Amino acid sequence: MLILDSSALFSMEGLPDEEFMCPPGVVDELARHKDGRLVLWGDLLRISDCTKESIIKVKDAARKSGDLGRLSDVDIAVLALAADTGGTILSDDYSIQNVSKIMGMPFRSVGTKGITKTEKWNYRCVGCGKWFKERPDECPICGSGMKACRKK
């Protein structure tokens, strides 16, 4: 079972002959972009929700690595669905791959090399330079934006 994120659905090249599944948010992303490839998937793609328990597990793992601020709700649902089904994630998103590796879930890249090691992230305000372990929407001190930086 392969759990697809949007990058895998956008690619559609070199996909193995296996069963495909994704959360509803992935399909919504393609529909929002009016991507015509969505109709080509037809009955090949099973759409399924993930459990709330798996979402909590994914968020905990992503919070520990610093990836939580880099993942969308759809990315989290992809990871949670893989946790629920024991499937392999098909994604070019490095944060999805990072959390997948941390959680011990298999993943494959579609069009990129993919990650070779896990990373941990901190966030630095681009205005005042203050560091944060989790990513706020904006700096609580000066209101500037945040930049993700690999933790050393």
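Next protein, fold it too.
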Amino acid sequence: MFDLRITIVQFDQIWENISANYKRIEHLLQNLPETDVIVLPEMFHTGFSMDTNLAEEWSNNEALSFLRNWSSKLNAAIYTSFMVRENEHFFNRGVFVEPSSNVTHYDKRRSFGLGGEDKVFTEGTTETIVDFKGWKFNLQICYDLRFPELIRNRIEATGEAAYDVLLYVANWPNKRVLHWKTLLRARAIENQCYTIGVNRIGIDGNNLTYSGSSAIYNGLGETVIELNDQESVQTVILSKSDIQNLRIQLPFLKDRK
């Protein structure tokens, strides 16, 4: 069974300053140990902004070029999100960038009305699962975490689960961090998968404070790693055999109707 090395990058995003965020990420990714997947927070190079002047055309954008370059350089996939413009609509778009330059995208399906996101961005309509290195990743973004009906895992006709890992990238404020921790753990338990949540730290342009608490939980809801409120880059190993054995020993997914 192929184990997976995954790196979570928790940092203080500089509000609406694309070039400064590029420099910060470049610094954090230097001297990174060998890894398979790197996860950055939501809207990685702007913070959770509603300023669509910062959006680039999907067909030609610098953000994607930046991610492709680092994915190739580190020979690792990268997952994050950023705002894009396509067909006169704006999207908070997740991108899973592979070292081959292949890109799979996912548009956030639940807009954060409390923050006005629903007035700016068009919601996505489809689930996106990526198969990479023998692992299946379900791509998610921040507010999606509150809606378990979006990502109910299931046993496919092949006899395998639809996915092995839930990936959440977020700008989740400190005032609701208890919800963040609780819901991440719940999604792991109910879907018998690894659940990964990568959040930012610091204070944004709306004076909201973020305490990080990026984390990885296994299919039993047990902690693989939990970060505090400091900048941190951590690499951990996920076991494919562990998640498969769990589903054999506790075949709850098969009972799902």
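About the second fold: Helices lie at 18-29, 62-74, 177-191, 240-249.
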